[in-house]
Amino acid sequence: MNLEDIKAVGNLLAKPQKIVIVPHKNPDGDAIGSTLALWHYLKNRGQEVRIIAPNDFPKFLKWMPGNEQIMNFERENSQSKTLIEQATIIFTLDFNHLGRIGQMEPVLKESDATFIMIDHHQAPSDYAQYMYSDVLMSSTCEMVYNFIEFLGDDDKITPEMANCIYTGIMTDTGSFKYSSTTSRTHTIVAALIDKGAENTKAHNLVYDTNTPTRLHLLGCALKNMVILKEYNTAYITLSQDELDTYDYQKGDTEGFVNYGLTLHGICFAVIFIENKEEGIIKISFRSEGNFSVNEFARKHFNGGGHTNAAGGRSDVSLQETTEYFISLLKDYKTQLNA
Ligand code: 5GP
Ligand code: MN
């Protein structure tokens, strides 16, 4: 975001607006943390503002300050549509194109509000009048911190906002270990703790929330793991039957994909999760090093994301999907052995 844009956005926010903030579908810690932090900030500035999420989000995020006011477009459909129709500004956070918000896409496309994008995914599309897009950022939460600082308001970051921003940075950086974590990230995190972020509490509330059935589901996932040594690849499958057996709850499979990468020599890890209701296989891709899962997901699985973390989907069966996946790998053998 250049100086001119910051001034323009500052001027817009100096007047009373009707604001809607939207995270991506299946919102994660960064999506919920960033939208909530921005919501607190705008509300404290006296703006009329609501967060509308495309669908529900996991229980382990339902402690974050303000989470109870997040509207669910699926559940509160007509009220959500009215708010979007009346909005003068729509912030879209933590996603790069409107296809990432599912059923909300046509409704947002109808709106003549001013769109402001804050996001760190690759290849952003250009629906927003004001774009703060930076793929080098660890998280959208880090960008929301910067955004508030650009507006000269970092001294207005409350403990509630600090907790939300801290949590999103924590979840999107794998607790500050991914390569997107910079000294600037740590500087911001330090400032957030000074402003009231409760770091230990955030870790406990997000990560120490296992249920026995989730751990059993993890056991099942790890048992299903297939290691393809010649491609330095490990993949996991979970069928709908397996999810049902272990009483799957939203968010239960979060982080499972990362186990593949903890194997020595493995640089590409994938999880395929069957979703009978949507009739798709949801896929998560992770890599270590230069292999771009963003490009792989974009090219073969109708998805995208970042160089080392991306997602996608498949419309054929679980078995056909994994067979297709394996058939693709031979073209990547050199890259995967680099
Ligand atoms: P996850 O695997 O944790 O769902 O997502 C990893 C990263 O890829 C996140 O940044 C997420 O926003 C992005 N992502 C996940 N699924 C999709 C998808 O279907 N399409 C695109 N473009 N990005 C995705
Ligand atoms: Mn993010």
UniProtKB/TrEMBL annotation:
DHHA1 domain boundaries: 269-326
Gene3D superfamilies in the record: 3.10.310.30, inorganic pyrophosphatase (n-terminal core)
Leader sequence residues: none
One Pfam assignment: DHH
Domain DDH: 18-169
GO-annotated molecular function: nucleic acid binding
Spans traversing the lipid bilayer: none
PANTHER family, sorted: BIFUNCTIONAL OLIGORIBONUCLEASE AND PAP PHOSPHATASE NRNA
Protein name (record): Bifunctional oligoribonuclease/PAP phosphatase NrnA
